[in-house]
Amino acid sequence: MAIRLPAQFDPHLFLRRAGEGRGALKFNKDAVIFSQGEVADAVYYLEKGSAKLTVISASGKEAVVAILGSGDFFGEGCLIGQRVCIATATAMTESAVMRVDRVAFVRAVRSEPAFAQLFMDHLLRRSIRVESDLVAQLFNSSEKRLARLLLLLANFGQETKPEPVIAKISQETLAEMVGTTRSRVSFFMNKFRKLGFIDYNGRIEVHSSLLNHLLHDEPQIKR
What we know:
Blueprint: H1 11-17, E1 22-27, E2 32-34, E3 42-48, E4 50-56, E5 62-69, E6 73-74, E7 88-91, E8 95-101, H2 102-111, H3 113-139, H4 142-153, E9 165-166, H5 171-178, H6 182-194, E10 198-201, E11 203-206, H7 209-215
Antiparallel strand pairs: 1-8, 2-7, 3-6, 3-8, 4-5, 4-7, 9-11, 10-11
């Protein structure tokens, strides 16, 4: 369950007013927000738009590790001593981002309990998401992993209202996140469309019927 915040608390307004060490930035589609290997000295808050985090291995292979939406924090590794960025953040649409220096961010967390609760909620949801991703990767077929990803991108199962129309995202990006090939993603997307689970014409519209498809034979962990 998400932590309830005071109705009057607005993180966008708070971050813009909370003193020095922060700056409002705008990025065009495909613009790099920060790059893997750069000095990690700030936390970022995605006010509007969408972005992706990618990692490049020593052999040059690139993988998409996260898709970010409005209200997401990223770059928080600097708060625990991470000296360099371990991923590249790239805007997927025109995006508005608030950059907060590490020291200023720590000061904001300590000075405003509502903001601290908001950030802790983000960390808990991120941890649960990573655990669920690992379970899906270990036990689900690539078809089920794709269905799950589409539902997550459309906010199904979240407290926020589902957004069934997903901003344009390439099959290559979906394949990287699912851990399969673009041709397999194309096959499954066409299958989902024929079954009425999605509408797909560049942009993706996800229907709730896809959730039933995912839940059928969904792996369960014994407790």
